[in-house]
Automatic annotation (TrEMBL):
This is Isoleucine patch superfamily enzyme, carbonic anhydrase/acetyltransferase. SUPFAM superfamilies: Trimeric LpxA-like enzymes. Keywords: Transferase. GO terms for molecular function: transferase activity. It holds the Pfam family Hexapep_2.
């Protein structure tokens, strides 16, 4: 399904393949020989999404951009099923495995790998040819990697990055209940723009 959002139509190379139940919404550009498979969602929420040539986005992957964080994917990139890739830069020849999550402001350099259920956090740079192990979390620049059970060490790096402020514009110093109130007020307000979407 191709959708016009905020007056922008997706631009798709004639040699690309978009599965009939994939969704491509808004200011999205898809290069030649790229394949967007069944159930995938590529949603430009105000920012742009660029997907290069010879890429594969497998089933039920979610690719998103926001007003503050556009998404740019190079050439020969594979994004596995159920992956979540938002507002980041992915250079050429990167492999993002099943269930991986790549967050706002991250950069995956050429030929890097994020293995099954790996996470690359906000503002993190994964160097060229580097690999995030299965289920591990990469965070920071320079990058450090931890297994999920190392929460305290992860949080000591993550907390100063201020995820709510960087992603949603809401400072994490306010009480949790008020943080969610402010985040949801911002998100519901932004997402109401979809009421004017039109299927192409």
């Amino acid at each position: 399904m191709l959708i016009n959002h905020l007056g922008k139509d997706p631009i798709i190379d004639t040699n690309a393949f978009i599965a009939p139940n994939a969704t491509i919404c808004g200011d999205v550009r898809i290069g030649k020989n790229t394949r967007i498979m069944y159930g995938a969602a590529v949603i430009a929420e105000g920012g742009t999404i660029e997907i290069g040539d010879n890429c594969v986005v497998l089933e039920n992957a979610v690719l998103r951009s926001t007003v503050k964080h556009s998404l740019k994917i190079g050439n020969e990139v594979l994004i596995g099923p159920n992956a979540h890739v938002v507002g980041c830069t992915v250079e050429d020849s990167v492999f993002i495995a099943t269930g991986a999550s790549i967050f706002h402001g991250a950069k995956l350099c050429k030929s890097s790998v994020v293995k099954i259920n790996g996470v690359v956090h906000i503002k993190t740079t994964l160097p060229e040819n580097e690999s995030v192990p299965i289920g591990w979390i990469a965070i920071g620049n320079p990058v450090k990697m931890f297994p999920a059970e190392k929460h305290d060490e992860i949080w000591s790096i993550q907390e100063p990055l201020n995820f709510p402020k960087y992603v949603y514009g809401v400072d994490q110093e306010i009480e949790a209940e008020n943080t969610m109130y402010e985040v949801m007020k911002m998100m519901t307000n932004a997402l109401k723009a979809h009421k004017d979407d039109t299927i192409i």
